[in-house]
Amino acid sequence: MNKIYLDHAATTPVRPEVAARFAELLSKTYGNPSSIHGTGREARRILDESRTLIARLIGAEPAEIIFTGGGTESDNLAIFGTAEARKDEGRHIITSVVEHHGVLNAVRKLEAAGYDVTWLPVDRQGRVSVEDVRAALRDDTILVTIMAGNNEVGTIQPIGEIGEILKGHPASFHTDAVQAFGEIPLDVDRLGVDLLSASAHKINGPKGTGFLYQRTGTKLSPSSAGGEQERKRRAGTENVPAIAAFALAADIACREMDAHAKEHGMFKRLMADALMGEGIDFKINAERAETLPHILNISFPGTDIEQLLVNLDLAGLAVSSGSACTAGSIDPSHVLVAMYGEGAPELRNSVRFSFGYGLEGKDIRDAAAKTADAVRRLTRLQKGEQQ
Ligand SMILES: *Cc1c(COP(=O)(O)O)cnc(C)c1O
């Protein structure tokens, strides 16, 4: 059976040239970048090059890039690191209810420890209101953390406008850009952010590698105790091969960004047109928002998400509900709950299709046909049950 992977927002295949770079360095450049001998210096050179390249892609200085063990670790370092470093200045944090769990659960932990948290709602398109951010700001606000692009429905948040408001306020501004990096242009000065998280495995790089951008002068406490790597902000010997592979993947993603955006926009239209052509009843979630090019979240009235995902998997289609699956049952997505409210039908019938490397128009048409088949079968079953 022809398998079609449409879950690139969950993780992506490693590009062959990136895998080749990784494999080459894994055996060849095994030195410890902190060693002073030639073997170590060679690893240091690769690490420095990678840092310079990544920094350039977001308009940062190399010294402002901290390599980490992925997006979640970057989010945690930004949030716990800010809370710890600025705890004497205030205990108020502003975030949104649609953040990734890497942010959500870190902020929840601080809330449980006595920090005061303002949880901003979103509208039916999944958007945070800039005015809400302004209204929530207090003298004791030390951190504002709002994601750049949502991983479930794709909504792009008004980070630049929020950054503009925060220019007159001392709070640190963090954005989880894990889903947005490599998909839309990100310039840390234009966005006005102090901290920005990204991850390699969402852009065809290896898993377990990411970075946190930290603007020069932004206070941050290290999250782990150990050696003096990453300018004392992230202890532990750097994963040089993975970091170099990440830099290569990021460089390719940013160079091909426009072409990918165009192609993914075409995939979205193809998918919608094909479903319409099949006479399927559906609604695109966050349709009126500006969304990340690679994410398409669709609600299919009359279907049930668990049955739909099982049926699509059997048909060789890898898609996602966008939310966590605990003990075999799917919890309603916190993002869709925030958009539509508890009990809304979309919570039980929405599927995330996400596009990326290696896909062609033919795959999208096949995927639409498989989806249409499954939806038809399930809605027919449902009608039968009700009679
Ligand atoms: C995947 C993802 C993360 C977590 O990144 P990992 O590298 O898997 O830890 C964080 N935020 C968003 C928006 C994501 O999509």
Automatic annotation (TrEMBL):
Q: Where is the Aminotransferase class V domain?
A: 4-364
**Swiss-Prot/TrEMBL keywords:** Iron, Iron-sulfur, Metal-binding, Pyridoxal phosphate, Transferase
Q: Which domain of life is it from?
A: Bacteria
* A UniProt-annotated Pfam family: Aminotran_5
- Which PROSITE patterns does this entry report, sorted A to Z? AA_TRANSFER_CLASS_5 (PS00595)
**Known EC number(s)?**
2.8.1.7
- Full protein name: cysteine desulfurase
This chain's source organism reads Bhargavaea ullalensis
Kindly list the organism's lineage. Answer: Bacteria, Bacillati, Bacillota, Bacilli, Bacillales
